[in-house]
Amino acid sequence: MTTRWTYAFVDRPVPLFAQACDFWVGVTGTRLSEFRGERREFVTLLTSERTDACVKIQAVASGPGGAHLDFCVDDVREFAKGAQALGAHVVADHGTLVVLRSPAGLLFCADPWRGQSSRPPVFRGSRPDQVCLDVPPSLYEAEVAFWSALLPEWESRPGALPEFHVLVPPPGLPVRILLQRLEEERPASAHLDLACADIGAARAEHERLGAEFVAEGGSWTVMRDPAGGLYCLTGRDPETGGLPSG
């Protein structure tokens, strides 16, 4: 079940889809692809012709949205079957695309690999490179075990704080996974993280484009985009995704 490529999906409510597209184009230095889907609900953030996209935006018909992961693999059926054996269940089967839900209830997709291999560059000192899975305490250990088993070629290790666990993909893949144990029991959710060389500078740029400051963490800042979605600016190296040395 080797993962060939990863996409981070930014999921936002239909009425605010246009605002989300404008904002994320601005902060990533990208351009929009053609809209796809029966309701034109999918769009890709395109980079230069020499690199492959790794962020997409989806308009969701209900709920506040959030984020989810797409895994591009050689054999979608094999990947989905393996995920089910580990405790996931299928939400929708579209033939070449299978939508699944993890044991904690988080959506993810299996999609055919189409030769993607070159990750997008850092833009103005930041890069969207991580999907954070926020998991309630009662489901956290099982969710860590699920993702670690589903992605055996990824490095699975404790994070910098006790409530974090990191899955680092093989070199070349653009999106990693952070699992965060919540302090209270509530439904699992997910959000996008950006690695930033300078969180303060990134925050100022994002606020200029319409985002709002929400909260300050240890080495991260929580923001809200113009479509109402939460995301984080994190003090990680945008080239490597790792924490600064020292």
A few lines on this structure:
The protein is of the alpha+beta class and 246 residues long. It is built from four helices and 16 strands.
Overview of this structure, please?
By secondary structure, the protein is of the alpha+beta class. Helix content is 19%, strand content 39%. It is built from 4 helices and 16 strands. It has helices at residues 17-28, 76-85, 137-150, 199-208, and strands at residues 3-13, 31-32, 42-46, 55-60, 66-73, 89-93, 98-101, 107-112, 126-135, 155-158, 164-168, 176-181, 189-196, 212-216, 220-224, 230-234. The protein has an 8-stranded mixed sheet, covered by helices on one side. An 8-stranded mixed sheet has the order 10-11-12-9-13-16-15-14. The protein is globular. The mean pLDDT is 96.
Characteristics:
single chain, 8-stranded mixed sheet, alpha+beta, about 250 residues
Q: The biggest beta sheet, please?
A: 8 strands, mixed
Ends: how far apart? 36 Å
Global Rg: 17 Å
Number of helices: 4
Q: Could you name the ranges where pLDDT drops below 50 across 5 or more consecutive residues?
A: none
The helix content is 10-25%
Strand order of the biggest β-sheet: 2-3-4-1-5-8-7-6
Order of helices and strands: EHEEEEHEEEEHEEEEHEEE
> Into which percentage range does the β-strand content fall?
35-45%
Estimate the global geometry from the Cα principal axes.
globular
Give the beta-strand count. Answer: 16
Q: Average pLDDT across residues?
A: 96
- Pairing-aware structural class of the strands and helices? alpha+beta
